[in-house]
From TrEMBL:
Source lineage: Bacteria, Pseudomonadati, Pseudomonadota, Alphaproteobacteria, Hyphomicrobiales
Keyword Isomerase among UniProt keywords: yes
Name of this protein: Ribose-5-phosphate isomerase A
Species of provenance: Xanthobacter autotrophicus (strain ATCC BAA-1158 / Py2)
PANTHER family found in the cross-reference section: RIBOSE-5-PHOSPHATE ISOMERASE 3, CHLOROPLASTIC-RELATED (PTHR43748)
Family: Belongs to the ribose 5-phosphate isomerase family.
Length: 253
């Protein structure tokens, strides 16, 4: 039977790591991931509300003497890391990374992920690909039997976006999926612009029976820069729920 140990309860301590806010599963997952960090590591720092907890907890360790170098996956994480005094570098300055810790919007079978709900998918995928290991942290509601309930973010260039949108819809259909493709907008109704100056199309599919086929189809569309399907990247997923911490590995889903 593959490994899927409920780590928190198994230890029988009631708390896994100091400084954990018991009421917040995202923070508990982040605290557990901190146990994978060792002195001297070069770390990819993810984006989003769960990764934010991780950076906060990491900063506490740094102030207590931990020596790490962080590579932020977004401007948001960059400013958080700077404000908390976490040493940072660009990916090119840091070189290959030891570990990348990031959140996810959905975790499916084989640790296939949907990411990009916050629009950071492009830098996130580049940083995760540069790391020896990607560890995902999430609350247990993110685990799904099939990806697709969360709209799939696709980062595209702004030139000819209406045409790109039509071609993405065609590609999605050819991959056996169906659903509306919507240009993401910010709170003021303006197109949402990513850190790299691109736009995001959110594809509302409901179900993605074959994530690899969908990824291939979308990648063929001219104008697509990246998509939020992270396949074969996560080596571990730390899920926090009412039952404590569960660590999933690709075969243990
Ligand atoms: O673009 C955003 C990232 O992919 C996030 O990691 C993802 O949306 C999960 O965010 P949260 O931890 O806030 O649920």
């Amino acid at each position: 039977m593959p490994h899927a140990a409920p780590v928190g309860r198994a230890r029988g301590t009631g708390t896994e790591t100091p400084m954990v806010h018991a009421e917040d599963p995202k923070r508990r997952a982040a605290a557990h991931a901190l146990t994978y960090v060792t002195d001297g590591m070069r770390l990819g720092l993810g984006t989003g509300s769960t990764a934010r907890h991780f950076v906060e907890l990491l900063a506490e360790k740094v102030h207590a003497g931990l020596n790490i170098l962080g590579v932020p996956t977004s401007e948001q994480t960059l400013s958080q890391a700077v404000s908390l005094g976490v040493p940072i570098a660009t990916l090119d300055e840091a070189g290959p990374l030891d570990l990348c810790i990031d959140g996810a919007d959905e975790v499916g079978p084989g640790l296939a992920l949907i990411k990009g709900g916050g629009g950071a998918l492009l830098r996130e995928k580049i940083v995760a690909s540069a790391a020896r290991e990607m560890v995902v942290i999430a609350d247990s509601s993110k685990k799904v039997a099939m990806l697709g309930r969360f709209p799939l973010p696709i980062e595209v260039v702004d030139f000819g976006v209406a045409s790109i949108e039509r071609h993405v819809a065609d590609a999605v259909r050819k991959a056996g999926c169906e659903g509306p493709v919507k240009l993401r907008r910010d709170g003021d109704g303006h197109p949402f612009v990513t850190d790299q100056g691109h736009l995001i199309l959110d594809v509302h599919l409901g179900r993605i029976p074959d994530p690899a086929a969908l990824a291939r189809a979308v990648e063929e569309v001219a104008g697509v820069v990246e998509h939020g399907l992270f396949l074969g990247l996560a080596r571990r997923v730390v899920l926090a729920g009412a039952d404590g911490i569960t660590v999933l590995e690709p075969g243990s889903f």
